[in-house]
Amino acid sequence: MVPKPRLPVRFTPAAADDLDEAFAYVTTRNRAAAAALLARIEQAVEHLGDLPEMGAPLTPEEFELVEPGVRFVVVEPYLVFYRVADPGVIVLRVLHAHRDSLGDLLGG
């Protein structure tokens, strides 16, 4: 069986800002922990290129205000929200689990 090619993964500007903010925040407390967190998030995002359907979907029935097709994976304590779109995976946001993720996804 021929393996599927890895899909390209890209970050929205908001998701890139989220990563910068998370790294900066954790760095003020522990630089090694910040580097480890960033590595874990990058590894999870890389896996999305191989297994784009691995994340849990935000179903329209439960989250009617969120556009269809949004999924997420947990990289404790962060949630990586993304969408599979032609030609790859788009990381929408990287948000701390204690934030108002739905509000942030909706731009509020």
Mean pLDDT: 87
Distinct helical segment count: 3
* Largest beta sheet: strand ordering: 1-5-4-3-2
How many domain regions? 1
Distance between the termini: 45 Å
CATH superfamily: RelE-like
Principal-axes geometry comes out as globular
- CATH class categorisation: Alpha Beta
Give the total of beta strands.
5
SSE pattern: EHHEEEEH
Classify the secondary structure makeup into a structural class: alpha+beta
The CATH architecture name reads: 2-Layer Sandwich
What does the oligomeric state look like here? single chain
- State the helical fraction: 25-40%
Summed up:
With 108 residues, this protein is of the alpha+beta class.
Keywords:
108 residues, five-stranded mixed sheet, single chain, YaeB-like fold, 3 helices, globular, 26% strand, 37% helix, alpha+beta
Could you characterize the architecture of this molecule?
With 108 residues, the protein is α+β, with helices and mostly antiparallel strands. It has a single domain, classed as YaeB-like fold. The protein has three helices and five strands, in the order βααββββα. The protein has a five-stranded mixed beta sheet with strand order 1-5-4-3-2. A hairpin with a 2-residue loop joins strand 3 and strand 4. Helix 1 runs antiparallel to helix 2. The radius of gyration is 14 Å and the shape is globular. 22% of the residues are buried.
